[in-house]
């Protein structure tokens, strides 16, 4: 059994706000690990990575949603609905993983969702955030 080929970050994955880009890269890294675990049928590893991914996604969504509310981003409602959709999908996948029923395309589906979401939704708030004074270079210190 071969694992699925590693995906690369889309060229335009970065939105230009370093803190959020760092979080997106971390989510992407977890998805790479998930693809590998699913491809090798590592059931317990899949569950552990899904749990980690759910926590990281919740943190990331909470950060974006707080910023959107505090900076009065007009499209905050539809953006939060998109986040809720993925939170729901992740919960469904977690239940299936518990029964070792995870489909091989699980990670690919989530990864596609993340890429599309960053491109279609996250990119929309960038200009608004920058105009509101968000420092695009502020980033977490590297470990
Ligand atoms: Fe995001
Ligand atoms: Fe988002």
- Overall pLDDT score: 88
The tally of beta strands, per DSSP, is 0
CATH superfamily: Hemerythrin-like
* Main sheet makeup: none
Task: State the CATH class.
Answer: Mainly Alpha
In terms of DSSP E residues, the strand content is: under 5%
Rounded to the nearest angstrom, the radius of gyration is: 16 Å
How many H/I helices?
4
Looking at the structure, what is the overall shape? Answer: elongated
Structural summary, described in words:
This protein is mainly alpha-helical. The chain has a single domain, classed as Four Helix Bundle (Hemerythrin (Met), subunit A), CATH 1.20.120. It is 69% helix and 0% strand. It contains 4 helices and no strands. α1 packs antiparallel against α4 (106-131) and α2 packs antiparallel against α3 (76-98). The longest helix has 28 residues, at 43-70. The protein is elongated. The model has no long low-confidence stretch (mean pLDDT 88). Bound molecules: fe (ii) ion (FE2) (2 copies).
